[in-house]
């Protein structure tokens, strides 16, 4: 799949997805229930953008998602989410640039890696800046429980969100890959 030009529709699609994710992250837990709070919609969109194998798009998406997260959270550590999302996007992009598989399990593994990197970097920066941790992150057991809960819930949401984003960003890619599958061996023989 060849890359689209810089001023293309892909950036507009990512911007719209980020705005929808910011809206979902800020309003759904308040309107529907607090059980939706562990879902990090902005991180999921950032991971998906990193899986598109465009480093500029991945880092731009991550920094924008971090700014949006910091803007609505109003927490004491402005910029920490931006840094942690950029590092998560960088790690995901580096891993997926080495692994050329488009398998759904690899994509889910990248959600888990990004969630762990995001939370770990956030905790490190809170410690460096000597800020008070949120009540859910006090003590090693609660940190581990929060990390496992967040990763699990984000994995479940990614099961449904990534196929939807595939339809938005890669229309017809499934049909193209299935059509070219029988001809893979022919190209090598000739």
Structure description:
With 190 residues, the chain is mostly helical. The chain has one domain. The protein is 74% helix and 0% strand. It contains 8 helices and no strands. It has helices spanning 9-31, 41-51, 55-73, 80-98, 104-128, 140-169, 173-180, 184-189. Helix 1 runs antiparallel to helix 2, helix 2 packs parallel to helix 4 and helix 2 crosses helix 5 (104-128). It is globular, with a radius of gyration of 18 Å. 26% of the residues are buried.
Briefly say what this structure is.
The protein has 190 residues and is an all-alpha fold. 74% of the residues lie in helices and 0% in strands.
Query: Assembly state here?
Result: single chain
Strand proportion, as a percent range, falls in: under 5%
Tally of individual helices:
8
Counting structural domains, the number is 1
Task: Estimate the helix proportion, in percent.
Answer: over 70%
Properties at a glance:
190 residues, globular, 8 helices
Task: Give the topology, please.
Layout: H1 9-31, H2 41-51, H3 55-73, H4 80-98, H5 104-128, H6 140-169, H7 173-180, H8 184-189
Helix pairs in contact: 1-2, 1-3, 2-3, 2-4, 2-5, 3-4, 4-5, 5-6
